[in-house]
């Protein structure tokens, strides 16, 4: 064993182990045949843990040596480095060595800092998403300062956004699980994702479950149903291949990654059981995607394909929406890719999915500007439309939009058409295949959009549906403006 700082000093981990075992320092000293003061010195990082001591700990307490040694703080270091990129820390010079020393020597303090920052991000997002006052007499009633406090969907969105829609431990566990079902996961392998037959074999050998495909009239509205009494997993037989594989992966995530999902939920502090249940469902879907599109392999693929979502979907046997959703999750500390936002809307403009990893206020507040292509993409179904966007504050983003279909699969089955928009900040757009052919819209001619009409102060917008807050409307006694609401520019 090497004697580097990464593996010698592990006082806080040793202290946690002792407490988890319910031992005093004297108890552990007796078990290890050393003195109690020496245990205290080890826990305070005043003495290194030798290779002989590591082996003694592993043998005495029947624990895996790798689990005991841990990663030397590599995960905490990566997370700290990612968080300290926040502009609020920009005036503090923190050398990388100090971050590593803190993570290795004081993992408890590091974890406390990470939890505080996550809580801070959640509160910031909650403030940013405050909605208009709830009307008097509404079912939910107004919350603090007249705002609706009972919105489990918004609560789950904040939970995901505060963590940049990434759960590294869940990714790691899902990738290990995928490796047990797929042969040749190395770069260059022809097969990069588990096939339905791989899932079926896993259910049979690991869980004694038989997968059966049943018609819709038998499933009675369910796409997937686990019957533990008969040891069967029932799947609707009209699902397309991408949906079939996703449902198999989702069930496997519930069966084998339940502990990891629970750990990810622990610091959510949800206000209601409904919010916690919705978050659990979101994490199960995240785990399913991580099994089908393992992080390390998918991250390499997006670079090789220049984020060509349709090509990636074919490579991994996934749908366009599943692939688009997955690219928003590639923010694993130390292995980050382009941060994306995603919004899904129906023809009526209702927002059914929001994922914001790119600091795009439109996605956070609902995306009501009709000038954004995501609202007009229904005229050109299944075609990708690219667009450069410019917000009133001058920030620019690049967006791609395309329709997706849910449901169907048989004659008379209900189909739901929705539109998906995925985008990133302008500085990352050059890495996307969509900006390289020279046939799309020009970067120097972005579409001017706003967050919402009531907070958009662009004076010349023919698509405006409401006047901006705080602006005086001009009279039209002698002149009719070309825009719906003329108002003073100052």
Automatic annotation (TrEMBL):
InterPro entries: Cro/C1-type_HTH, HTH_RamB, IrrE_HExxH, Lambda_DNA-bd_dom_sf, ScfR_C, TransReg_Diox_bact_type. Residues 14-68 form the HTH cro/C1-type domain. The keyword Electron transport does not apply. Belongs to the short-chain fatty acyl-CoA assimilation regulator (ScfR) family. PANTHER family: HTH-TYPE TRANSCRIPTIONAL REGULATOR, HTH-TYPE TRANSCRIPTIONAL REGULATOR SUTR. This is DUF2083 domain-containing protein. CDD domains: HTH_XRE (cd00093). PROSITE patterns: HTH_CROC1. The keyword Coiled coil does not apply. It holds the Pfam family Peptidase_M78. It comes from Bradyrhizobium denitrificans. Keywords: DNA-binding, Transcription, Transcription regulation.
């Amino acid at each position: 064993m090497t004697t580097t700082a990464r593996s010698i000093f592990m006082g806080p981990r040793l202290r946690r182990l002792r407490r988890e075992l319910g031992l005093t320092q004297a108890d552990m000293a007796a078990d290890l045949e050393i003195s109690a003061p020496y245990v205290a010195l080890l826990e305070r990082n005043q003495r290194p843990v030798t290779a002989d001591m590591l082996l003694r700990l592993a043998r005495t307490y029947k624990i895996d040596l790798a689990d005991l040694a841990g990663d030397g703080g590599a995960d905490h270091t990566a997370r700290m480095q990612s968080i300290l990129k926040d502009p609020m820390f920009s005036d503090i010079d923190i050398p990388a060595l100090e971050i590593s020393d803190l993570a290795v020597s004081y993992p408890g303090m590091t974890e406390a800092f990470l939890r505080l920052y996550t809580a801070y991000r959640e509160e910031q997002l909650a403030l940013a998403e405050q909605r208009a006052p709830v009307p008097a007499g509404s079912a939910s009633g107004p919350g603090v300062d007249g705002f609706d406090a009972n919105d489990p969907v918004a609560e789950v969105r904040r939970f995901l956004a505060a963590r940049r829609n990434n759960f590294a431990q869940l990714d790691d566990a899902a990738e290990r699980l995928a490796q047990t079902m797929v042969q040749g996961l190395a770069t260059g392998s022809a097969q990069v994702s588990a096939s339905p037959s791989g899932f079926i074999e896993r259910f049979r050998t690991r869980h004694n479950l038989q997968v059966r495909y049943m018609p819709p009239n038998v499933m009675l509205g369910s796409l997937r149903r686990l019957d533990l009494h008969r040891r069967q997993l029932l799947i609707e037989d009209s699902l397309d291949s991408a949906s079939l594989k996703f449902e198999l992966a989702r069930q496997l995530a519930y069966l084998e990654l339940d502990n990891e999902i629970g750990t990810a939920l622990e610091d959510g502090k949800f206000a209601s059981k409904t919010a916690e249940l919705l978050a659990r469902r979101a994490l199960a879907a995240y785990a399913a995607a991580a099994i089908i599109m393992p992080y390390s392999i998918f991250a390499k693929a997006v670079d090789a394909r220049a984020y060509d979502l349709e090509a990636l979907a074919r490579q991994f046997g996934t749908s366009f929406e599943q692939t688009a959703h997955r690219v928003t999750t590639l923010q694993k500390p130390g292995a980050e890719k382009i941060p994306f936002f995603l919004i899904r809307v129906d023809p009526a403009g209702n927002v059914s999915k929001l994922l914001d990893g790119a600091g795009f206020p439109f996605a956070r507040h609902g995306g009501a500007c009709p000038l954004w292509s995501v609202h007009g993409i229904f005229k050109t179904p299944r075609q990708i439309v690219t667009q450069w966007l410019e917000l009133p504050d001058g920030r620019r983003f690049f967006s791609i939009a395309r329709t997706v279909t849910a449901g169907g699969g048989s004659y008379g089955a209900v189909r739901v058409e929705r539109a998906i928009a995925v985008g990133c900040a302008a500085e990352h757009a050059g890495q996307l295949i969509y900006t390289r052919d020279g046939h799309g819209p020009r970067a120097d001619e972005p579409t001017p959009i706003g967050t919402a009409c009531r907070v958009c102060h662009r004076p010349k917008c023919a698509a405006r549906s409401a006047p901006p807050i705080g602006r005086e409307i001009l009279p039209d006694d002698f002149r009719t403006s070309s825009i719906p609401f003329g108002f003073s520019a100052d």
